[in-house]
Amino acid sequence: MRVAVSALVLLMALGQPALAQLAAPVDPGAATADPANWPRSASPAALSDAETEAFVDDLLARMTVEEKVGQLIQADIASITPEDLLTYPIGSILAGGNSSPGGDERAPAQAWVDLAQDFRAANLARGGTVVPLIFGIDAVHGHNNVVGATLFPHNIGLGAARDPDLIHRIGEATALEVAATGADWTFGPTLAVPRDDRWGRAYEGYGENPEIARSYAAPMTLGLQGPLSPDGPIAYGHIAGSAKHFLADGGTFGGKDQGDFVGTERELIDIHLSGYPQAIDAGVLSIMISFSSWNGVKHSGNASILRDVLYGPLGFTGFTVSDWNAHGQIPGCSNESCPQAINAGIDMLMAPDSWKPLYENTLAQVRSGEIPMARVDEAVRHILRAKVKAGLFRTERPYEGRLELLGSPDHRALAREAVRKSLVLLKNDGVLPIRAGANVLVVGAAADDIGQAAGGWTLTWQGTGNTNANFPNAQSIWGGVEEAVRAGGGTATLSVDGTWDTRPDVAIVVFGETPYAEFQGDLSHVDFQPEEPLVMLRRLQAAGIPTVAVFLSGRPMWVNPELNASDAFVAAWLPGTEGGGIADVLIGGPDGTPRHDFTGRLSFSWPRDATGTPVNVGDEDYDPLFAYGYGLSYGAPGAVGPVSEESGVATGGSSVADYLVDGRVVEPWSLALEDAGGQTRAGTEAAIASPRGAVSVSVVDDLAQESGRRFTFAGAPRQLALIWGNPVDLSRQANGEMALSFRYRVDATPTGRVTLSAGAADPARMGSLDLTPYLTNGPLGQWRTIKIRLSCFGEAGGDLTALERPFQLSTSGQLTMSVSEIRLASNEGDAVCLSE
Question: How far apart are CA 6 and CA 378, in angstroms?
């Protein structure tokens, strides 16, 4: 049986000495860079040519201190309106992962154009010294926020392609589609070097070895921006880029997002400097600074990294921007105030929802001298210089509104080529290529799910909640296979559960990870746990039907049982919106000869066991199942024998994000009831009651049989129903605007106030919110879903750094209420913040 290991279990396994070492005081000297050790690079002279500098000099001389401070602040479109710009001279806006026009994640492309134009018009109407806004967006695998855009494979797949020219062309296509919707700037290329596959952002990196990012950094930068010229701004149809996340975001201990890179300066340079020198040499206009730390010191506050290195030997002359409220994580700072970050070398603070108090506080700090005016002028110069070169002072926008560029035939063909080149063939016992005239059974819900193939950062931050209807310019994997097979005179049938009426010649089983992004994607091991795909593969194998496994994932995973149950196994990564690219390689001609060969090679070592222990090329005792650079092809086949099905992970499920799912309280969490008589720890199946009988629980049906729990409160002091466990740190999730989501049904109206709480077990460290209005204003007996922002519990006093109770209902009155599917979820503009 497949089993999971929680982060808590992992830390417990380390033992107390190891835990004490992790919590030991940090020596700041261990995170001080010596510029003499770093290689040399330089932004092109065209970025700061004489004409540009003279223009910036004149502009700076006319700007007020208020206008200068405004350039240092970036606000998210979910928290700022065009009308706000009539008062506040903010220099930049962004559309974060779950931000969109009118809060509609599936808004039409024209709404994006209108939004950009409304912000620009308000900025001009304010008067004073007019400095254009720069509008940034995460176009990390194409223009992934906008319905109809072309979505390319995520970077992990592009790394497998080993094709710098392909990367350049993808950059050009992405820039055109972003420009068409009115934005000016994308937060890419991502140059992370993921060294731990448990990291939830591993798929954003090109590979575990920095050689791939070094070869891709310049082509992607030049694709997005084009070359810089002393004769004027970048060409129309190009946009500003931002290399990210500087530095070592892919090297954190345990693969923890926003965590700590524990290592030497030499390791930092040799591995995690990655392609930054190449991006700088190519003229990248901005660099985003990482949330993460080096030996305990946050990069966003590390002047030796920012000022001494980045603007020293690396020769960067563009501007730096922080990540989402990252400045608030610097000791002594908050989201609303952080002179330390600016003084350390951050030019623009990404303050999505905290921009207004941050602007006011920063202005006061400049006036008091806490932030020197010379530092402000330096930061503003960097920003203005980049805005000039990005062409923002031009009035013409010839590509804006040309929405036919979204998902254009040329861009779709490019994405299909990228899919073909990204596929890695791990195993082939002769079943591939499939003859076009065959009777092909395509198995699994993922086969016809474009959203699953696209992964995270797809219309929504986590990539969840999408249907095929949200991808009008796209083709699913099933669609591509059906088209290819029928064109060759064969038959193709889609079967989600793997059953058939007519015996097929071959089955293609499509399965893999469901979409996730940062926070939600972090794992404690790399065992692919869902059992259903393995059951279907074994059933087909037992029936003697040749099977081809197509595995969708954002990282290498332990899939040894699936490998053994397949005749061929393809690592397809997260291919995006052109599923036909997979059929191009799997389906041959009528005579079975290949139409395209496999050319992808692993850019990440494939693990031999499921523990998640980092396995990277060049390590001592390097022993992966499939090595970095591995990949079979039709021209170069190879035999793969049976592999061990011993996963190496301990028993017991785990989750820091799921609490009650499919009728099961997810380990290591437990259900408990309390009243004045004390606490009872409850099982998940039998009906039970609290010690004095004030609270009872029983099972109910919701999405499936017995998938929910009904809590009955009889009316007594200290009535609690809760989910509890050992402390976990959810502060990162709160900062990332994750929400506590659950389905509920009111079966009997409450007779008193009902609170929902989260935090530590100590009542003084619990954040309690009033749930009563939601329970009294809606209809009885109807299932509904609510999302409550985690940050709201923190603002109400909940300790989210040592959370022991993620869900606690309490009332002194009577209430009957059913709940199901309690978990953390992405705030897609649908989360609320209840009052205390």
Answer: 46
Judge if pTM exceeds 0.85. yes
- CA 540 to the chain's CA centroid: 35
- 3-state SS of 216-267? HHHHHHHHHHCCCECCECCCCCCCECEEEEECCHHHCHHHCCCCEECCCHHH
Predicted confidence at residue 690, as pLDDT, reads: 77
Question: What pLDDT band is residue 21 in, cutting at 50, 70 and 90?
Answer: very low
User: Contact 273/213 with Cβ under 8 angstroms?
Assistant: no
- Cis, peptide link before residue 245, omega less than 30° from 0: yes
pLDDT digits (tens, 9 = 90+) for 407-417: 999 999 999 99
Q: Is the peptide bond before 230 cis (omega within 30 degrees of 0)?
A: no
603, 439 contact by CB (below 8 A): no
pLDDT tens profile 382-394: 999 999 999 999 9
Give the residue among 175, 283, 156 at the shortest CA–CA distance from 213. Answer: 156
| Residue 29: predicted pLDDT | 64
- Using pLDDT thresholds of 50, 70 and 90, give the confidence band for residue 714: very high
Of the candidates 546, 534, 585, the one whose C-alpha atom is nearest the C-alpha of residue 430 is 546
Of residues 526, 536, 539, 658, the one with CA closest to residue 605: 526
Q: Mean pLDDT over all residues of the chain?
A: 92
Q: Give the residue carrying structure tokens 């939830």.
A: 200
Reading the block at residue 629, the tokens are 């650079």
Query: Is the CB of residue 292 less than 8 Å from the CB of residue 299?
Result: yes
Q: Is the pLDDT of residue 757 over 80?
A: yes
> DSSP letters along 546-589, please?
-EEEEEE-SS--B-HHHHHT-SEEEEEE---SBTHHHHHHHB--
**265, 323, 675, 702: which one is catalytic?**
323
- Indicate which residue of 518, 562, 658, 828 is catalytic: 518
SS3 of residue 510 by DSSP: strand
**Helix, strand or coil, per DSSP, at residue 89:** coil
CB 184 within 8 A of CB 215: no
Say how far apart CA 267 and CA 248 lie, in whole Å.
10
Burial of residue 455, with CB atoms counted within 10 A of its CB: 0-12 exposed, 13-18 middle, 19 or more buried: buried
Q: Which residues of 626-656 are buried (b: 16+ CB within 10 A; e: fewer)?
A: bebebbbbbeeeeebeebeeebbbeeebbbb
Q: Say which residues have a Cβ less than 8 Å from residue 229's Cβ, sequence separation at least 6.
A: 46
Q: 621 catalytic, yes or no? A: no
Burial class from Cβ neighbours inside 10 Å (0-12, 13-18, 19+) for residue 799 reads: buried
Residues ≥6 apart with Cβ < 8 Å to 252 = 196, 199, 258, 259, 260, 261, 292
pLDDT band for position 773 (50/70/90)? very high
In this prediction, residue 687 carries a pLDDT of 66
Provide the token pair at 675.
């009243």
For the residues 738-742, what does the mean pLDDT come to? 93
Please report which confidence band the pLDDT of residue 682 belongs to, taking 50, 70 and 90 as the band edges: low
518 part of the active site: yes
